[in-house]
Amino acid sequence: MEPIRKLKDWLKENAPMLSVVYENKYVGMVYDRFASLPAKQQRQVLIGGFAGVIGIIFLYLFFSYWSLWSYSKKASRAYQMVALLQQHQKYRRDKSADINTLERNNQLASQGALKNHLVDLARSSAISAKLVQIEEKDTEGGRGDDQKPESHEPKIKQATVKMQRLNLTQLKTFLENVEFGSY
Description:
Blueprint: H1 2-14, H2 16-22, H3 25-35, H4 39-105, H5 113-124, E1 132-139, E2 156-163, H6 168-180
Antiparallel strand pairs: 1-2
């Protein structure tokens, strides 16, 4: 009994809040009950209690790992969704640029508009309109012979330009205006 008395005195001095737990009548009843058991059963209770504590720790670690794995899986799904969204936005941005180009070029869709535009480019290149012959013709764009015409397909226009009596500078300026112009 001497070691138990020393333990109680040490608890009263150093940790008085634990002495309240130790002096609790229910804790005392459990201790008395444990002390009244034979040595073999005391060992079984201690091993069972230790196994219970280990089991609780194992369950805690298992559920912590499970929640961490679940969170990691959700995060990877979120990253995949973000990547897919960025890919979709890039696709839409590219298609939007194509649509803007087609809408801008739609100004040349009317009959004779491409010819007038090329004549204006020739004038800006210091080429007389009398020296330029332009033939404009429509072609069917992107369709085979067996497909039906669709309203959303772009129409392709071609122009044949014949020029007479011009120098290399005028030709160069005209080709630059065609190549780097607004259409």
